[in-house]
Amino acid sequence: MGCCVFNVGNHYVHGLHLFQATSKIVALAKLGRITSARKLFDEIPHKDTVAWNAMLSGYSQLGLHQEVLCLFHRMRIANARPDDFTFTAMLSACADLGELRGGMKIHAQVVVSGCQSSLPVNNSLIHLYGKCLSALSARRVFEDMNCTNEVSWCSLLFAYTSYGLFDAARGVFDGMPKRTEIAWNIMISGYGQCGDVELCLGFFKKMQSDSHQPDQWTFSSLMNAFSELKQPLCGYMMHGFIFRSGWVKAVEVSNSIMSFYSKLGSHNDVVKVFESIGIRTQVSWNAMIDANMKIGDTHEALLAFQQAPEKNVVSWTSMITGYARNRHGEQSLSFFVDMMGNHIQPDDFTFGAVLHACSSLATLGHGKMIHGSIMRHGFHAYVYVGNGLVNMYAKCGDIQGSNSAFNDILEKDLVSWNTMLFGFGLHGLATQALELYEEMAVSGLKPDKVTFIGLLMTCSYLGLVEKGRALFESMVSVHGLFHEIEHVTCMVDLLGRGGYMAQARELVEEYSRTGQVETGLLESLLGACFAHSEVRMGANLGEYLKVFEPRKEMSYVLLSNLYCLSGQWKEAEMVRKTMADQGLKKMPGCSWIEVRNKMTVFVAGDHSHPYMEELYKILNSLKLQ
């Protein structure tokens, strides 16, 4: 084997053999020094398959799957011959990236190269198809195998649980020659992810009674399951159980505990857990980014992102989502552009987040560009992305584009229908909204509480009082759905707009007897009082709201306007004075328009726009028309 000279950092290593260089690459990758490993790899003049595999495995172990694909492409150009280890690394990368098409191409190369009898390769194929939700393909690979092991069985089990085929999964689980801890964990994780916490806990108890000890993956799955519950008690109890069992220091468990507290909004607990982690993984840093974004601290989230040694698609998506959620749409779009510039492959969640940013900015031009990127990356068939497109086009004023995106969704879920229904309502298309509701019923989908919020809002905007009443009553009588505050508020607004003030007040009083009165409900009734000059009722409501929520300017503004409308100038002045004493200011109205992908905002009372004189001339000419 030949000798050569390699430069690593500031150190020169003379006479290092290829075998030793490969060993060094493996060691550096295990230490997380992947950049140094790659530098050493690039300086090897004549690489063998083992060296290529060492670098591929290093990237794969650190979750840098896009780099695995890029390196394999270079390996093919270099005419290096892939082997079992190469295909295993490649299939693992495709699985974690959700690259079903790419994985199928690797499957074809496996057959051509004669590696289809390799047990590790077949196990990786089953894992790939399981990750990409192709359970039948996973089953075919399993059935064609001459010999199987525990990994084969567990990979098939994972394929079924990932696709939600729990009856088939239970059949595989019961038929396993030997049930390992991994098999138990897959069942626990599967039930947890589909929200069946009771079965999740049941398997956890059976696992222990079957003399199998829970490990970090068991506890991680349980904490993730409890994160989805509305009540945090089970999560608190499991955290205590984990602490007593000694698994609290395991990084996977710590990451799931961080995610649990992050979803609760307990930022201090997230920081405590993060600081207690010895070796932080990408998941740890991503959880920290998400926790900061959830409390609106975009600066700390950006610092965590910058400090993270390696960034994956989740890191970038967390930033894009966080900025969009905190109404920093422009930063969200900027991060998406930077992500693409860094050659990070977006996923469906990335596109969903950046579409939300476009919706909040109402930038149709940017939204259309994102739509084009979605088409190029092959995510147009994903229902989550399709729903985002429906919402984006509706919010950006293109209801035809919204309807077209809705029709392009092959397997519509309830969110798809509700989003389109809200879109029609937003554009004042009551007939289309009600027709869509009828189509939804014909399709076999049952409406939920969100559906009726959209329907009642549509009826309220367009004054369809009787239709609104019928829908409101059908919630309980036909669909068995209880009225919540949002539905009552919509109904009060509908009745108030229609001039049915006594009935609107009766509905408020009826709801107040069953639960706590919400300010939004009273503000809706106060707004109706202003619209119909109901001074006495409005004054009582306004005075109550001033006491109930003294820091909210809406009640002061509505009450002052009501007094002005009835000529009670002294009372109106007193309300404004109280508002000023409280340090409250009316939020000025604003509107915006997009021209050539640039947003221009107009704020009431602001005359600083350089073309304001010309704009007023155009507005006056439009009034004359």
Question: What does this protein look like?
Answer:
With 625 residues, the chain is mainly alpha-helical. It is built from 35 helices and four strands. It has helices at 18-30, 34-42, 49-61, 65-77, 84-97, 100-113, 119-131, 135-144, 150-162, 166-175, 181-193, 197-209, 216-227, 233-245, 251-264, 267-276, 282-294, 298-307, 313-325, 329-341, 348-361, 364-377, 383-395, 399-408, 414-426, 430-442, 449-462, 465-477, 485-497, 501-514, 519-531, 535-548, 553-565, 569-581, 612-624; strands at residues 3-8, 11-17, 590-595, 598-603. α31 packs antiparallel against α32 (535-548). The chain is elongated and about 95 Å long.
Query: Cα-atom Rg, whole angstroms?
Result: 30 Å
Q: State the secondary-structure class.
A: mainly alpha
* Uncertain residue segments: 1-15
Give a count of the beta strands, DSSP E runs of length 2 or more: 4
Q: Please tell me what the overall shape is.
A: elongated
What is the percentage of strand-forming residues? under 5%
Strand arrangement within the widest β-sheet reads 1-2
Largest sheet: 2 strands, antiparallel
Helix content: over 70%
Count of helical stretches = 35
Termini, distance in Å?
Answer: 88 Å
Averaged pLDDT, please? 85
